[in-house]
Amino acid sequence: MEKIKIEEIFNLTGSDLKNKLLEYEDETKYSNNLERINAVIIHSFNNELLNPKEMKIVESDNYDNVMKSNPKSYSDFLNLLKVKKKINININPQLLKSWNNPKVTTLEGHTDTVSSVAVSDIINTADGFRKQYIISGSHDKTIKIWDLSTFELVETLKGHTHYVMSVTVSSVKNATDKFGNNIEKQYIISGSIDYTIKIWDMSTFELVETLEGHTSRVNSVVVISSIEKATNLPKQYIISGSMDDTIKIWDMSTFKLIKTLEGHTDSVNSVAVISSIEKATNLPKHYIISGSADKTIKIWDFSTFKLVETLEGHTTSVWSVAVSGIINTADKFGKQYIISGVEDNTIKIWDLSTFKLVETLEGHTNVLSIAVDDKYIISGSNDNTIKIWDLSTFKLIETLEGHTDSVTSVAIISSIEKATNLFKKYIISGSYDETIKIWEQN
Predict the structure, then answer these.
(1) Contact 217, 242 (CB under 8 A)
(2) In this predicted model, what pLDDT tens digit does every residue of 222-275 receive, in sequence order?
(3) Residue 97 pLDDT > 60, yes or no?
(4) How many CA atoms lie within 13 A of 120 on its CB side?
(5) What is the pLDDT of residue 276?
(6) Which of 229, 241, 288, 318 has the smallest CB count inside 10 Å?
(7) Structural domain count, the chain
(8) Are 436 and 146 in contact (CB under 8 A)?
(9) How far, in Å, CA of 365 to CA of 346, rounded?
(10) How far apart are CA 55 and CA 140, in angstroms?
């Protein structure tokens, strides 16, 4: 079978190219024609000639590797494509996104370890602007708020008497102001070694409430939203994990403790929450996930507060747990995963529906923090690096280097850029080096 030259590809129309490719390639190798065409063109340009029999090596999970192998060629190809204009193909935007050489901004201001980072929802301000904030908690006992669009420090919150170990953000959509108007309120929730949880009003930066009940340091705080049966309205709860080996659930509307979960035999280092669709009823089901120094991960049914499952497999402390959204798999069934980062240098992926171990990722030393979005697993480690893994293939995509000490906390978010009105993706990281870094996907 003769080879196809680049010139021949450029001389084909989009429809002719599709037909020609279908002659040579099994249609099941790519999820759609656009992926197939992109892969062939990239491969053709980098190799000058394309042997159709070799098309099988250019699969979707190799796109980034293909581009990284010769990024200049790929850039030249895109320019050439614009000039030639003889082939009308929309390049898949995902192919143009890479974490290779991201733009990095460093935020300085804390005077001790940055132990936790979080990002607020987009806030509509009184002057008509939309704002989004980075929240950082530190061993210097403070919480700092940074403007994501300008990277400027907005406010420093003081009130904890010891290290701030965890910060998160809660949005309450059915709140009312003093005039009875419906508004959306956002709160910062912080957990500390001083045994307390504090709630701060995001609009005024004032302390709203201090929750007391844990008998040791509060390592992790998250918020879960649930529909209240009596009113059919959303209601929020704070979930906290502590070195006192317990998990506590607090009512966000009353700030009252409603339940303490006991079952771990050592410090609860991390908590996460996940909502899943129950197959039997087709209704949402909420779970609390907890990772502990007792080397286990526990799954709790939020509606009954009963322990559902204990995941065993790690050989040392579980430092961080995170959860994915629903991932569309090749067999057309959605999957959800629990991801755990551990002192044994591994990251483990667990199937939420079966509680089975799916994959073990290796490459770090002592994984301290995990974050997940719809495409990536982000991990921070004692080796001073951040690693980015493909959520669909579990392959390592990139290692980010820049921190000079352990990476204690990571977050990943998408934000709308004012200039282009397009979403940009950022990784936020906190470190023992007392800095926060913002990594902007190029």
Answers:
(1) yes
(2) 999 887 777 777 789 999 999 999 999 999 989 999 999 999 999 999 999 998
(3) no
(4) 28
(5) 75
(6) 229
(7) 2
(8) yes
(9) 8
(10) 55
